[in-house]
Amino acid sequence: MTNTIAGFSKLSKEEKINWIAKEYFSNPEEAISILKNYWNTDEKLQKLHDEFIENTISNFYIPLGVAPNFLINGKYNSIPMAIEESSVVAAASKAAKFWSTRGGFKATVLNTEKIGQVHFIFKGETSKLALFFAKTKTKLYSNTESITKNMQKRGGGILDIELRDKTNLLPNYYQLHATFETKDSMGANFINSCLEQFAKTLKEEAQHYDSFSEAEKDIEVVMSILSNYVPNCIVRAEVSCPVDDLAEKHIENPKAFAERFIRAIQIAEVEPFRAVTHNKGIMNGIDAVVLATGNDFRAVEAGIHAYASRNGSYSSLSHAKIEDNIFTFWLEVPLALGTVGGLTSLHPLVKLSLQMLENPSAKELMQFVAVAGLAQNFAALRSLTTTGIQDGHMKMHLNNILNQFEANEEERVLIRKHFKHHVVSHSAVVDYIETLRKSV
Q1: Residues contacting residue 178 through CB under 8 Å, at least 6 positions apart
Q2: Is 280 a catalytic residue?
Q3: Is 393 in the active site?
């Protein structure tokens, strides 16, 4: 690209594509063809997708899979998962089947509190600000009644508002730290609307507070925004069974397996380099369900990784123990999710995914998501501590390699037969494909 472009957002979709193709691709016609191949032939449906974001040029497909046989709190469920990574859905399904005959998963929502903050600068005495806040707090509530009335009808609303002194971190820095209950909605727009009204009320009331000096009346609101760190919006998922019941094909000595499994988790609890990869596996399950149900996986990721660092170093989200010969494996994660609003009522596949889950409440969705993360972690740790992670993962990845080299059906049959008894690696598959093709 040699020049900037003015008014790109005002161009039609066709004009945007033509400009991009001409500016960035040596074969513009091919680029245009690829983009248009991913358009939906249903014009109304394509228009819906076009309007989700800005400057849309095409659709970017991620497979939607299903992991069946999840026994959760005594009821069987099939969990939708949107993800591009091989072996994730298969691993979750395998873990679900394993635990379905050992009591299943137990999931509990511990609390559902969400957080928002007004960040402001006050150049004055903290004691005077505290008195002002105490006198103004009721007005912060009353001035948001038009925003909160519908949420209150559903049992939600503002739980509390606190004044927090942060001057030890930055000069003159304070917060209004508010907590919310948003029921089945994720609540971002609701929370941000309340916070912006708090900020307005704070500034207006300060102007008329006689005990403030002129400098103190000039409160500077820096920003008003929800937090994606929700350490009091927690769900717990767990599995447990007698140690001997862990026995299966690859677990001939269940006691040794359980002890090695626990040792692997202990390593992730104390070693951040391992913990990051350990938790990434958990997020394979969590993100896939969050994405399939139209929730914000970036917010979930940020909040969960902050939670994993809450004690001063990054650590495992999952834990395990043996007590009285009972093996227990669990995790607790913060999840701010919604089943109404946003894409949940717009995206056809999101609606379908929620229907597959029998139209859950936000609390029920929190449970499904946490269980998917725990199942994924169990599957990964079972592989790591028995056959090794690459054995199963590379077999699932084999299709991607075959597609990359455009293997025909005859080659696929021969290659799959060969790698039933040989270790799958990218180089080994490529070598075998070349051998087959040279022999023709």
Answers
A1: 115, 116, 117, 118, 158, 159, 160, 161, 162, 191, 194, 195, 198
A2: yes
A3: yes
